Amino acid sequence: SQQGEEDPQALSIQEGENATMNCSYKTSINNLQWYRQNSGRGLVHLILIRSNEREKHSGRLRVTLDTSKKSSSLLITASRAADTASYFCATDLNQAGTALIFGKGTTLSVSS
Amino acid sequence: EADIYQTPRYLVIGTGKKITLECSQTMGHDKMYWYQQDPGMELHLIHYSYGVNSTEKGDLSSESTVSRIRTEHFPLTLESARPSHTSQYLCASSGTPNYGYTFGSGTRLTVV
Prior knowledge:
The structure holds 2 protein chains of 2 kinds. Chain A is mostly beta strands.
């Protein structure tokens, strides 16, 4: 079964609005990461939050992590049309010999 | 921007052909990964490597092989291409623990 599940699957907002995406996971993690993917391209790493952190900021991005609920959220403030992309959460399990497990992603559309 | 390169960018090939997807990185990262991604879907791990002469299978590895003879090079080979292999193949690398992955731009493969 999927380790990470994003919610919602799709999100449409106007420029200037905030966008919030959620990610839930099932097992203990070492860290959780968020990536962005423009249509048909590779993924770009946005932000990483460790299991002992609760909140992290990077520019217009704010990530929270609640390990008791096994969930994370990504907030993009003051969205721009250029933020239109798919956003994926990925979990780094607290196990040796494993790779990142990605969720199904949230597709964000920001209209001007 | 990316220091990880995938070739070809697009490939259309006939059923039964043997193909090799190339991936090279210039960052000196020990860890490298191959993921498969259908349009709008999550990434599935195919193979990964933790260093030279080290390769491990992921979830979808049964019909492909990889090699890691040099740190910078991690090619993926499909011995006999099938239409079910039509997908996007993403290569990634990682260095220091608790940092994110760097992805290539991907190879979009179509098997006819």
